[in-house]
Design a protein that fits this description.
With 127 residues, the chain is α+β, with helices and mostly antiparallel strands. It contains three helices and four strands, in the order H-E-E-E-E-H-H. A four-stranded antiparallel β-sheet has the order 1-2-3-4. Helix 1 packs across helix 2 (55-99) and helix 2 (55-99) runs antiparallel to helix 3. The longest helix has 45 residues, at 55-99. The two termini are 45 Å apart.
Length: 127
């Protein structure tokens, strides 16, 4: 399933399912997910092996497990893309500052060049 289809399906199920937050609880023979109104979203009764809950909530839980690896991979890819873009932009800015340095070497220019070096290093994350 492609990202857009997966996201659309998850949004559709979220709209139909019990609102969040859900809380997990084990009590006696029951394992439950509770909704914000105190009603069980999903109940599992170990005595009768029955699962009790709305079809929309059950479908959301099932698809969430299937979707999670794909969504996490997409988040990781976007994070890596963002980090690479930030690093490239920092390097571009640092090179720009490098071009601002003076080629004269009197005392004033030395201080100016030192400041430019410090700015470029800070932009690059070097100090």
């Amino acid at each position: 399933m492609d990202d857009a289809t997966l996201i659309a399906r998850l949004r559709e199920l979220l709209a139909k399912a019990t609102p969040e937050p859900w809380v997990f609880e084990e009590r006696g023979y029951y394992t439950s997910l509770w909704g914000p109104d105190g009603k069980a979203v999903i109940d599992y009764d170990r005595q009768d092996d029955g699962i009790h809950g709305s079809e929309a909530d059950e479908q959301l839980i099932a698809l969430s497990r299937t979707a999670l690896p794909q969504l996490l991979a997409r988040i990781e890819a976007l994070t890596a893309e963002r980090d690479a873009a930030v690093a490239a932009e920092r390097e571009r800015c640092a090179r720009l500052v490098d071009t601002m340095q003076s080629n004269d070497y009197d005392d004033d220019d030395a201080e100016y060049n030192y400041i430019c070096d410090r700015i470029a290093a800070a932009i690059r994350g070097e100090g």
